[in-house]
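Re-run with default settings, no changes from the original entry. Doing this only to confirm the output is reproducible before filing.
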Amino acid sequence: MLSLHVAVVVGLLCGLATAQQFFPESCAGTCTGPENFATSLPKGPTGTGTRPSEWTIVTLNQIKANLGTTSPPGVGRALAIVSTCMYEAVSLFEAEGLQPWAVRDFKKIGGGTEQMNYAIDGAALTALQSLFSGFTSFSSVVQALQTINSSEDVRSLFSKEEASAMKDAARAQAEQGFDTLSTKMALALGAAACDDVIAKFSRDGYDGLARPLPNTEAVELDSVNFPQVLSGITNCDREMVDLDKWQALCTPKEKKSLADVGSKNCKVQKWLAPWGGGMTTFAILAGTPFEGRELISRVAAVDSTVLH
């Protein structure tokens, strides 16, 4: 898989003796307003899209609502978990011809579009519960069900006890195979499949938003390079010890577009996720999924000069 979350660094500017070189002038007006985007993000599911696209809208809105408390690696990992959970749910259906990645011992099942949609609903809702149920924004996920699937069966997943019983029953039946598949059972199968995806991701020692789990070794990183003194401008001679290593940028305290480039009125950035090199964001290993291979070997000791 390719990462859907790409960190874009604009304006690493070296203060040279001759002149300061800035980004192309055409970039100054790029993405400064909604009119610069081909399609704006809907505030909720449209009721006209496919199940994966509807849940993607819900997921992106959760990310948008919590940007102040999540890290870039966390956003990448959240997108990975939601999309992989939906993939895993679809892969259970024989007609799709897909290979499951995390689920084991489930026999391929039949069923039509309705059952598959319920499986996707169970997987996506389980993923979002694991990621955002502790945030106030999660209420909009509940509201989204009115558009995506208002069935009482879906709402049963909000009960920990009922959801656990449903998933246990689905697992037991999936190991034997299905003669017929009800929508409620398809829902539970999707939720169970997502549980396996989340468990496999967490093997590296981090939760769905890339936060260290208890007993995960702390990672502290100190850059070998000195932080920027002027916002948006790097003095290569004075500040850069190694061009292959990270530099903490100084971001303007007042946002006045290009007027703040080169200002001392800026704040040096801090690490959002110094453990980023020790966990998996979006990519997963290629190969046979049943080999039991880990996503990534958790870093026991990280060179304090390196940020992956």
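DSSP finds eight helices and two strands in the chain. The two ends are 18 Å apart (CA to CA).
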